[in-house]
Amino acid sequence: MWILIPSFEPDSRLVELVRTLLPHSPVLVIDDGSGPAYAGLFDNVTEVGGVVVTRDVNQGKGEALRIGFEWLQRYAEGEAVVCADSDGQHRVQDILRVGAELSRRQREGSPDAVVLGARSFVGDVPVRSRLGNRASTALVSAALGRRITDTQTGLRGYPPSLLSWAIGVRGERFAYELRLLLDASKHHVAMVEVPIQTVYLENNKSSHFRPVVDTLLVLAPLLLFGASSVASFAIDAIALLALNTATGSLAVAVLGARLISGSANFALNRRTVFRARGSLLPQVAKYIALAAVVAGASYFGLLTLTGYGLALLPAKILTDLVLWFASFGIQRRVVFSHPHAMSEACAKVVTPSEETTWRATSTTSSRSRKNSASRLI
Fold it and tell me: Could you say which DSSP state residue 152 is in?
């Protein structure tokens, strides 16, 4: 098992972290374009026995992780990886705890899963970090249809079978890690949480995470889904008025408007929101079935809430809001999911970037030494 540490403009804590981890696992560090001023520090990493991959240009944590996964697929094939941050916020014992859970699952033949080191956010936690995590947790959990305790954790373990999938997930910077959670849900990849200690140093000033911007980036599908719903409502209203004027029949107008707006909503969700592939007809059938279920659920929801004394309008708003989130999750995971997406992702051949180099010292693993004089490509 390897430890993967993406790093941008680190301090001496990185060297100490690598030194402490090496007796337990080989360590791969990604220098994400830190520049010449930090070359000496990364040289120190190789001197203590770590492997350093250097990128000439800073492209963010998402790309750094993908480069690390590519390197491991090429030079450490078949080995699992635990990803950790370089700023000292992940304790060595917590990194090893995530690795131990990953190893246990592999040893016992459990289904492949992403292992998350989940912080509890109790005690002396910066307000910015506490609020950012709570907001992203609520929104991402709503999109996932399940609760994840810590959506921003950078301490994660991946079995070797999931590396190609992880490389294929879109997203840049910290949004990449949030998108991994959404993509795991879509492709039915299990996620397991291991409790770890919450550590913030110097009020977390070293963090490059942008709570608002990066959370909005990962929630783009949910926002697009909302926009699609609003657009479909507008189409339905316009079509209803036009057909009622043309035919003079309210029944024909309602049915025709729903057919038009439903078709538009299906097309928008399929092409823009979920970017689905695969056969069209099964997706149409599932969409129609979902629409029927939602209509029935709406009726029984209104019947139940008004039966308890709630007025019709608030009952309608509450019912539709719940069903809207449920519809998003079902469309993501069932209607527009691609059953072969995981196998296609795992078959992907990745070519590492030409602007990536790596170096290692004689104290690294034999697999690393064998390639220490070459570039990635």
Answer: T
Mean pLDDT value across residues 111-127: 75
Q: Taking CA 372 as the corner, what is the angle to CA 368 and CA 374, rounded to the nearest 5 degrees?
A: 125
Q: Residues 203-261: pLDDT tens digits?
A: 445 455 555 565 566 566 667 878 888 888 889 888 888 888 899 887 888 788 889 98
User: pLDDT digits over 71-88, tens only?
Assistant: 999 999 999 999 998 877
Reported as half-sphere exposure (CB side, CA atoms, 13 A), residue 245 has a value of 6
Dihedral of the CA atoms 207, 141, 198, 81 (nearest 10)?
-80
Radius of gyration of the chain (CA): 24
CATH 3.40.50.720 fits 2-218+343-369, yes or no: no
pTM, entire model = 0.63
Other beta carbons less than 10 A from residue 198's beta carbon: 18
With the C-alpha atoms ordered 26, 29, 30, 36, is the resulting torsion angle positive or negative? negative
Q: Which residues contact 264 (CB under 8 A, 6 or more apart)?
A: 231, 232, 235
8 A C-beta contact, residue 345 and residue 183: no
